[in-house]
Amino acid sequence: MVGTGYLGTAHAVGMAQLGHDVIAMDIEEEKIARLSACELPFFEPGLGELLRKSVESGRLRFTTSYDDIAGADVHFVCVGTPQLPDSFNADLRWVETAFAELARRVAGPAIIVGKSTVPVGTARRMADVVREQAAGSLVEVAWNPEFLREGHAVQDTLQPDRLIFGVESRWAEKMLRAVYQSIIEDGCPLVVTDYATAELVKVSANTFLAMKISFINAVAQICEATGASVLPLAEALGYDERIGRRFLGPGLGFGGGCLPKDVRALCACATDLGLDAVATFIRQIDTVNLSRRDRALGIGRELLGGAYAGKRVCVLGAAFKPNTDDVRDSPAIAVGVAAHREGARVVMYDPVALNTARRMHPELEYGDTIVEAARDADLVMVLTDWTEFDDMNPALLSEVVRSRNVLDGRNALAPERWRAAGWTYRA
Ligand code: UGA
User: Fold this and answer.
1) Ligand 1 neighbourhood includes 148 CB (under 6 angstroms)
2) Which of 139, 115, 109, 117 minimizes the C-alpha distance to 127?
3) Residue 341: closest CA among 369, 317, 308, 371
4) pTM > 0.90
5) pLDDT tens-digit profile of 207-250?
6) Which among 10, 38, 51, 130 would be 20 to 30 A from 245, CA to CA?
7) 108 pLDDT tier (thresholds 50, 70, 90)
8) Are 289 and 310 within one domain?
């Protein structure tokens, strides 16, 4: 395994659980030291326990050296592909480095499998690099995208809903079938295809999910303007099996390290291909999504009587979604930071993401409990849908806030309960 971020760690542990002998490599020494000591560098339910079991069984070890992994039969490249700072394109430098380093060392017969999310065409380029370096020996490239969700990494790795193999030979397919044998025998659907299709499956899946969220958020704006109610509307749409209820949750929209960057990368791909109408279509998914943050900020402003300046705002939620400590492109943080910039004193609370948020946004204040964050607040904003927030008692919170104003950015609270306790509730 090359790269022990979120995906690489989950996959390494998953492969060890399937009975394989796994060695995982990362250039970050501190990360490898923590993983070797069975300590997860991030929050993920259930994964820490399986990490410990895998290490103790001797089936999983860690290294910082490419030389230590060169002898493996199957290499998974799981390094990150974040958005470039100055464009919509993905930064491929870590993928390119990983393939180049492996190509120089792997003697074969072996297969190098890309799992990172990449623009279409990357696998072909990497295969050319490998072919050039490994001339004469059997070293093949395959692309095998993953679909794991943060907060569900264990389940998504050990019981995926589908497997995609982008391969160029029967031999590469056979190797991958052997790796995933027990999962395939359990009935997991398998699609065997070419490199380009395998690469596109991943970004298309994420863009489709993002489109569902932006669709319901676009309809939510029409509901807001006409007095209709988006929640029963989403429920009614969801009963149509062709549409489905999941990912029709209206609110502050999507964030994280995947959906936003993948939508933008697909948009950049369409632009590069000269498919302007397609690019415009995909671009709107992002535009609608980002507009939700402004709308939330606007409703907050209204609740405060017109301005944030001098007000105290409690933001509940920092993670981009519940059950993770990941704050990358977090809508909750974006709104909190914007309120701070408009002059509010923002105090944030999150059940697990406080440390990551604090590191990235030292300008905000942080409370160790809901009550601490809400003390003397003029406005409480619920911006990540942790169950801890759904269960809050508005009567208890009434005793600590200055004004009973609540903005429910995730449609997570029971409005009647809050209104009955004297709160002005907006969603
Ligand atoms: C996403 C995909 O769901 C995974 O299948 C994929 O493997 C992963 O990206 C990846 O590319 O690695 P993840 O980023 O963990 O997984 O998060 P999601 O569960 O997809 O949620 C994304 C965002 O959408 C969150 O901010 C969430 O709050 C928001 N969301 C989700 C909504 O606003 N409304 C909804 O109805 C659902």
Assistant:
1) yes
2) 139
3) 308
4) yes
5) 999 999 999 999 999 999 999 999 999 999 999 999 999 999 99
6) 10
7) confident
8) no
Task: Measure Cα distances from 386 to 52, 63, 263, 323, 345 in Å.
Answer: 27, 35, 25, 7, 23
377 lines ligand 1 (CB under 6 A): no
Alpha helices in 227-366 (DSSP H): 230-238, 259-272, 276-303, 331-341, 354-360
% pLDDT > 90, the chain: 97
> Could you tell me what percent of the chain has a pLDDT over 70?
100
CA of 156 to the centre of ligand 1 (A): 13
Please tell me whether residue 406 adopts helix, strand or coil conformation.
strand
Print the domain residue range for 101. Answer: 6-193
- Give the residue among 181, 183, 173 at the shortest CA–CA distance from 143: 173
Whether the pLDDT of residue 136 is over 80: the answer is no
Looking at ligand 1, which atom is closest to the CA of residue 385? Answer: 28
Any atom of ligand 1 within 6 Å of the Cβ of 14? no
Of 294, 313, 345, which residue is a domain's last? 294
- Is residue 1 assigned to a domain? no
- Are 309 and 344 members of one domain? yes
Predicted confidence (pLDDT) per residue in 19-51, tens digit: 999 999 999 999 999 999 999 999 999 999 999
| Bridge partners, 382 (sequence order) | 316, 408
- Looking at the 3D structure of the chain, how many domains does it have? 3
Q: How many CB atoms lie within 10 A of CB 175?
A: 20
Residue 420 has pLDDT above 90, yes or no: yes
* 256 Cβ neighbours under 8 A, 6+ residues apart: 150, 320, 321, 326, 328, 329, 330
Which atom of ligand 1 is closest in space to residue 202's alpha carbon?
11
Q: What is the pLDDT of residue 27?
A: 95
CB 315 within 8 A of CB 332: yes
Q: Is 145 in the pocket of ligand 1 (CB under 6 A)?
A: no
Using a 6 Å cutoff on CB, does residue 213 contact ligand 1? yes
